[in-house]
Every structure is written in structure tokens, then in C-alpha cells.
Amino acid sequence: MTSDEHGLPSPPATRDVPALTGTPVGTVACPGDDPSEFEFIAPGDKGLRTGEFVAYNATVAGEQEAILARVTNTTQERGLPGEFLANPDVDPDEVAGALGVPTEDTELSRFTARTIGYFDEQISTFTNPRIQPQPGTRLQLAADAYLEAVLPSADWDSGSGTAHLGWLLNRPHGAANIHIPIDKFAATHLAILASTGSGKSYTASVLIEEMMRPASRAAMLVFDPHAEYDTLPEMRRDEHSHVFEGDDGYRPEVEIITPDEITIPIPDLTYSDLLALLDGPSDRMRYVLNEAWRDLTGESNHITPQDIINKCEDVEGERSGTVDALAWRLNKSLNRDLFVPAARDELTDLVAPGQVTVLKLNRLSQSDQQMLAAALLRKLYEAREAATRGEDDAIDHPVFSLFEEGHRFAPDGDARSLGILRRILSEGRKFGFGVGIISQRPSKIDPDVLSQCGTQIIMQIQNPNDQQAIRTSVESAGEDVLDELPGLTPGQAVVAGDAMNTPVLLNVRERHTEHGADSPEATKEWKTAHDRLENEPAGVTDAYDDDGDVDETPL
Questions:
Q1: Containing H/E element for 475?
Q2: Which of 126, 159, 265, 395 has the most crowded Cβ, counting Cβ within 10 A?
């Protein structure tokens, strides 16, 4: 592991490092059931576990190459006979002595490993030689520095920003750190999938911290339905300056937009948005509204509900029952603080390099959250499209949007935000618009959306439907890696896809800022509330006083 002047892990500088540790850990026994698998024997005290990386040397096309393999399964090969251990009162050492078995070396394990291949510098990833190791081949642990250098799909010479996610799960703390290339997942999108309490929001915050460091200075927009990212402003504190401050004085900007400050400009809506807001409009209402909306949007960037009603009356030629019905529906839907008449002309207050903007949506209904996302994403996408084509420079830099509770915005069903998200995920790479989807219910996410997320960070998943959704949509993570998902503990993750040359199991690093999404301590809060009620001053009704009259009216 290499570190910077502040003791923080540094990304690798080169791949020109030894691949093997020089310490044998096992011996190849035979080929496996699959052409890319083999079995090997190792002493039980070597501590090998599934997900570990071993390596051996082999000649490929006349060149000596280090072949990397991942351990996928383990079984006991030799130990004390089970029938002699049936009586728990018998000391195993006595059994071993009676059998003449040395107690210092009583276990051997048989492991299955899947060949990954040798690292090919020409294509900057692994090539499987399709050559099985010969029985008797000695295996060694792959070296930490080598794994750091070749597992991520990164060009270490480019100077591009990387995100330090954590370290390999089966190695000591900090021994083999994993830095994933931000450019990869910012371009081809990201999914963070985990059961509740497994650490998905924590991991997302780690990524935000990494993307806001001086080497990247990302332009980020976070859709936050549960107000879980309130602590990100801590990145600007002096005690974190060694992490986030650049040599030029840069510090990340953090904008927290509260529900009271969030608005949806009426001119940014589409005719389909309006229909989704209205309650059961008739065919005639649809026709009148369509004509009115088409005229209005061609005339002005300032539209009030009354403007729409007046234009509907112009279309009808009179104040008809159709107009009255539309007026009632429009006023009910749009005469709220959430909707404003002026179009959003300025976007750089929301997305600017070196700034993360968090939209706190916790007091908005799910349908309003979806409507906000639809209107805002369309505006941003159009701006990026225009900037890429040289037509406008309003947003002349890439944008990355992160969606907490992503199944709300891209459900396997219907939502106003689904269409534009599908478009961004399928076409956004051309225009520098990246998306991150965070969810505890992969089976509830639109399959097209999930399959377009090129990099995946997958944590503990227990639900069989969610496991199947991942298997169906995430092609880059093999069955042997996905089998690990139920057994992961909070803070452990599988990372796979475009940002990795092969999937890995890792421990997510600790955040620099405080975590804002911990579950409430129910028993502690109940006791505090009880004590507060018990100690209320005189004149305040005691919630536990049953001497007074009680309203027994049925609910």
C-alpha cells in the first residue's frame, strides 16, 4: 500500500510490480468441472477463503505470465474421522493420538478456483489463456500491490480521478486498497444495491466524498427522498482540509436544498406531465388542453395556471363545462407552492464543477418527487446535449446525478421520471450525463434501467426476487461471486462491471464525514419521550393521567 503525505491510501502508480508473493499456499490437484476451473489442496491453516486471489506462473505463447485465479469454493479434504468425534466428551487430541495422527497438521482443504487470466498490457485487462494448470503446480497468494494495480479498470498514467472504496475483503485492513476509476462509472452509470441496513447510503456517501476531492471536483446532483445526506457540508470543515482541500485553495461546495426551497417551473412541464397531474380528464379535456398548451409554450416562458385556463377558453371559444372542469383540475394540481410560473433559465446554481447539490425531498409525495425529477432531468439533459453539439454552453461540463431510493424514480412500472431516466441511461454517455441508482429493492427497478448501469456495487441481498433481478440484469458479476451476497455483512460489497477488470469482494472504507442515515434507537427514544412527558410542568395535560374525561368516540 502506498500513501500520500497525509497517510491516505494513494492509487497505484504503475502495474510493473511482482504478481506473486513467493510464498506457496497450495498445490493444484486436478481440473474442475468447468474448463476455466481447477481444484487445489492447501493446509487448513493457510486461511484461504472464497473470493481470495491466488496465482501461478505459466508459459503462454512463449512468454512467462502470471495467471490469476479466484477461489470460488472450499471443502474439507482431510481431518479427524467424524465417527470418532460423535461423543463431545472425548478430547479430539486423544482421538488423534490413538490414531497416530499429528495434531499440528490434521486438516487439509480442497479448493475450487476459477481462472481469470494474465494481465495483457495491450488491451489493459485480463486474457484467459484457456490452459489448465498441471497437477502439482504450486500456487501462491497474489501480491497486494499487484492486485491494487490490475483489478480496477484504470489507466494509472492518465492522472484521472479515482475513488478509494476500501480494501480487499480477504486481506488485512488496508493491505490491498481498491481505487476505481471515476471516469468509468460516471460515463456508463452506476448501481448501488443492498438490503436495508447493509450500507448502501454509507457507500454512496463514500463515493460522493471521493468524487468531490481535488483530483475530480465533480458536478453532482443528489435526489434524497429521506434527507440522508445532511452531513456532507462537513467536507468543508478545517479538520477535513487534508482530504478535500486542493493546493490552489479548492474546497468542495455543498448546497442542501430544503423541501421549502424546491420548485417545479410550470413552463418546464410537458403536456404529458400535465395529464399526469390532472384527475381523470375526458377526451375533450385532453384535446383542449393539448391545443392550449402547445400555443402557450410557443409564446412564453412564464405560465400561470390562470394562463392555461384562459388559453383553454380561447380554444373552446367560450367558457364551457369542459373549461370549468379543466380549471378545477388545473387549480387543484398547480396552485401549490411547489409550482412556479417562471421557467428555470439558470442551471449552474444546481450543477457546477466542485459542487454537490442535495435535493431534500422528504416532504414531497412520491408523485411530486417523480415530477420534479422528470422536469429537472429533461432540462439538464437538453443543456448537456446542446453543449456537446456546440449549440449552447450553459452546462459545458459533465454531470452526475445520484438517486437514493432509485426504485421510486425508475420503477418496474410507471412513473413520470422513468422515460427520461431510460433515455439518459441509454444515450447519456455521449453527452457526459451519468446516473447512479441506489436501491434496496433491485426487483422493483425497471430492468432496462438496471441493465444499463455499467458498474455495480452490490452488498448483502437476502430477498430471492432481488437476487434474481441482479442475476438477470448484472452480466458482469459471475454466479460464484453473486452466491456470496446473502453472506455479506454490513459494509462488505461486491464491485463489478466497467470500473473493474474482474469482480472483487471488499470492505468499504470509513467515511470522513458523519453518517446521516443511521436507524433511530427506538428504545432510547421511547424512554426519553416518556421521561419528558413525566416531567412536564404543572398545567400541561399528562398523557398518562386517566382521571380526567376520556373521549371514547369511535375512530
A1: none
A2: 395
Task: Say if residue 5 is exposed, middle or buried (CB neighbours under 10 Å; 0-12, 13-18, 19+).
Answer: exposed
What lies within 8 Å, CB to CB, of 141 at 6+ separation is 20, 21, 23, 25, 52, 53, 54, 55
20-31 and 37-43 strand pairing: antiparallel
> Exposure string (b/e) for 186-221, b if CB count within 10 Å is 16 or more?
bbbbbbbbbbeebbbbbbbbbbbbbbbbbebbbbbb
Q: Which three cell numbers stand for residue 276?
A: 399526469
- Render pLDDT for 134-175 as a digit per residue (tens, 0 to 9): 999 999 999 999 999 999 999 998 888 999 999 999 999 999
Helix (H) or strand (E) holding 531: helix 522-534
> Any residues with CB less than 8 A from the CB of 255 and at least 6 apart, and which?
349, 350, 355, 356, 357, 358
pLDDT at 518: 59
In the structure, what pLDDT confidence band is assigned to residue 308 with cuts at 50, 70 and 90? very high
What's the CA gap between 262 and 411, in Å, rounded?
23
| Pairwise CA distance, residues 55 & 464, whole Å | 34
Measure the CA–CA gap between 453 and 184, rounded to whole angstroms.
11
Q: In 3D, which of 181, 61, 54 has the Cα closest to residue 120?
A: 61
Separation CA 134–CA 339 (nearest Å): 70
Residue 141 CA to residue 55 CA, distance in Å, equals 6
Per-residue pLDDT tens digits for 471-519: 887 766 667 677 888 889 999 999 999 999 999 999 999 999 988 655 5
Contact between residue 374 and residue 419 where contact means Cβ atoms under 8 Å apart: yes
Altogether, the residues listed in the chain come to a count of: 555
pTM (two decimals)? 0.87
Q: Which long-range contacts (CB under 8 A, 24 or more apart) does 538-541 make?
A: none
